[in-house]
Design a protein that fits this description.
This protein has helices at about 15-25, 40-50, 60, 80-90, 105-115, 130-140, 175-180, 180-190, 260-265, 270-280, 345-355, 365-385, and strands at about 5-10, 30-35, 55, 70, 90-95, 120, 145-155, 195-205, 215-220, 225-235, 305-310, 315-320, 320-325, 330-335, 385-390. It is of the alpha/beta class. Helix 2 (about 40-50) links the parallel strand 2 and strand 3.
Length: about 400
């Protein structure tokens, strides 16, 4: 039973907010009270939809005493400044992944939240997904023995979706390492115990028109000798959702006959301005924005591709219906109930931190460690060398 709602202000009404909106709108633990965005059409729609205040800057919104907490969903390179603005005004923060694009920015954000005595939670990453958390609980039970190896892979159309120019600039947080690696590495760290010791990786850019990393393959070694291989491609050829029964990342069925649809749509953009306009049109307040259905009957768990965890006595595979367990005797599905509200797991953790004072799993330190691995993937590829890590932490909050 939910208690009083968190009075939430939204910093950025773009794609991340568009994906989180069904959660915020349906969860009684959240009250949307304010928003800011550069696009007047998005602010106007928010004011009409939620009878809420809108502002033309993050700082002005954070000055509103009605705002108790801020969801920072601005571009990656702006996270640090906007988190500091919110915490300086005593607001709790839920900031989108990645937490930032540099380690020093992470430290600034963590220190700012600590000094202000407010909570800093980072998400959504797919390590919030209930099947992933359930797999971790199965590991923690000890029945399956220790984790020995993890394999994670995902092939999507990320690189052929409409992008703003900075999303194709690695220096500003563009490419798959920051936006997609943050999901995959967060999952692998959670299942592997958190403390990655070293990274050896290769990245790839196979499209000169989109000059940033579009794929990577990385080998991670953990402090307790767990090894993980992580592969991601965003070039829209093979779709790894085929291995999950064509259940897409958002937990909804997808039509295999639409193969190549995003690539074809992108061809309509003749330059970067038109491409950015295509993206804006799909987002909240845009001309092509279509609200997600509240609770489709065929919704399953969200996911981020295939993940296999090899323990001493069984392999585990999170799937859209729960966790497949492959032990010495049989393969069976350990079902996990789909929450009535998509991404309710994010609100579970944020609400527990803000209202109940419970330490979150996805806090600043945890998410800084995930960013360190992502940066090491880039650095390892550039240096053609193994990168040793220094900012890793173990499982946090309820999973400690």
């Amino acid at each position: 039973m939910a208690g009083r709602p968190i009075r939430l202000g939204i910093a950025g009404l773009g794609r991340a907010f568009t994906l989180m909106l069904p959660t915020f709108a349906a969860d009684p633990r959240i009250a949307l009270v304010a928003a800011t965005d550069l696009r007047p059409e998005a602010r106007q729609r928010f004011a009409a939809d939620f009878d809420a205040a809108t502002y033309d800057s993050v700082e002005a919104m954070c000055d509103d005493p009605a705002v108790e907490a801020v969801y920072v969903a601005t571009p990656h390179q702006m996270h640090a400044a906007h988190v500091v603005s919110a915490t300086a005004r005593g607001k709790h923060v839920l900031v989108e992944k990645p937490i930032a694009i540099r380690i020093d920015e992470c430290r600034t954000m963590i220190d700012a939240a600590r000094s202000a005595g407010v909570q800093l939670v980072v998400g959504h990453s797919h390590s919030f997904d209930a099947p992933v958390l359930h797999a971790r609980k199965l590991i923690d039970s000890g029945v399956l023995g220790a984790v020995r190896m993890i394999h994670a892979f995902n092939y999507t159309d990320y690189m052929v979706r409409p992008r703003r120019p900075e999303e194709l600039d690695t220096a500003q947080g563009g490419g798959v390492i920051f936006s997609q690696g943050a999901h995959q590495i967060d999952i692998v760290r959670l299942l592997g115990g958190g403390r990655v010791r070293s990274v050896r990786a290769m990245t790839a850019n196979w499209d000169a028109r989109r000059p940033t990393e579009g794929a990577y393959s990385a080998l991670l070694t953990f402090a307790d000798e767990v090894v993980a291989s992580c592969t991601y491609s965003g070039y829209a050829h093979f779709d790894s959702d085929e291995f999950l029964g064509f259940i897409g990342e958002m937990g909804l069925p997808k039509d295999p006959a639409r193969y190549g649809a995003m690539r074809r749509a992108l061809r309509a953009a003749r330059n970067s301005d038109e491409e950015a306009a295509l993206k804006a049109a799909r987002n909240y307040g845009g001309s092509g924005y279509a609200p997600s259905p509240a609770a489709p009957a065929d919704r399953r768990h969200q996911h981020f591709g295939s993940v296999i965890v090899s323990c001493e006595h069984a392999d585990l595979r999170p799937v859209p219906d729960g966790v497949m367990i492959y032990d010495d005797e049989a393969a069976r599905l350990d079902k996990v109930a789909v929450p009535p509200i998509p991404r309710a797991e994010v609100i579970d953790e944020f609400y527990a931190a803000v209202v109940e004072g419970r330490p979150p799993l996805h806090d600043g330190e945890w998410s800084c460690a995930t960013l360190e691995v992502c940066l090491a993937i880039r650095d390892s590829s550039q240096a053609q060398a193994e990168i040793m890590l220094r900012h890793q932490v173990g499982l946090r909050g309820a999973l400690r």
